[in-house]
Amino acid sequence: MAAERDGARERLPAGATAAGRPRTPRLDQPRPPRRRILPEWDPEAFGRLSESVARFLGTGRFIVWMTFVIILWVLWNVSAPKELRFDEYPFIFLTLALSLQASYAAPLILLAQNRQDDRDRVNLEQDRKQNERSIADTEYLTREIAALRIGLGEVATRDWIRSELQDMVKEMEARQSGHKDQHGPFPAMRAERPPGRDADDR
Predict the structure, then answer these.
(1) 108: Cβ–Cβ under 8 A, 6 or more apart, which residues?
(2) How far apart are CA 59 and CA 29, in angstroms?
(3) Over the stretch 5-29, which tens digit does the pLDDT of each residue have?
């Protein structure tokens, strides 16, 4: 058996064993892109196109133009010669065209609404975060203002010092006026001269 294996190995050409093995993708190299049957498109560009179409469908200009085309279509296929009529009564081709337009307009409008909903959701999330930051800033400022008020309550302000000085000045003036009323301008002379001395001298 060993001799047969050695003989089979000798018969195989160089590189035959490597070519017979299935190739596995290497981890250090990017995978090759897969072939797709369907065509590729940019979702963002398609979304912008759908929004522009939906925006045009929701305007009065589109309604006016569609009404004008339908009236012209009906008048042409009613009053024109039979050789030139392309859609006689009951206007089957017009019905198919309007159905096709409606079948494409509805998904485009839904796609535009979905994109608008996504934008509204993002805007609401940003507004919520902004409101949370504003509330946090307001609470912080409220705490800081309360701390400043408490600190200012323990500090002597200019008005308080002025009121205290005015009270002291009034108190000193009151003491001086009371002292003058009690002793007069010459208290020593009044104390030395007893009452009734002038009568004795006479």
Answers:
(1) 50, 53, 54, 57
(2) 53
(3) 554 454 545 544 545 555 676 777 7
Q: Tell me, what amino acid is at 124?
A: L
Contact between 115 and 51 (Cβ < 8 Å): yes
Report residue 170 as tokens: 């009034």
What is the DSSP code string of the chain? -HHHHHHHHHHSPTTHHHHHSPPPPPTTSPPPPPP-SSPP--HHHHHHHHHHHHHHHTSHHHHHHHHHHHHHHHHHHHHS-TTT-SS-TTTHHHHHHHHHHHHHHHHHHHHHHHHHHHHHHHHHHHHHHHHHHHHHHHHHHHHHHHHHHHHHHTS--HHHHHHHHHHHHHHHHHHHHHHHHHH-S-HHHHHHS-TTHHHHH-
Residues of 58-78 as b/e, b for ≥16 C-beta within 10 angstroms? eeeeeeeeeeeeeeebeeebe
pLDDT tens per residue across span 145-171: 888 888 776 666 777 788 888 889 888
pTM metric for this prediction: 0.46
Question: Exposed (0-12), middle (13-18) or buried (19+): which is 112, by Cβ within 10 Å?
Answer: buried
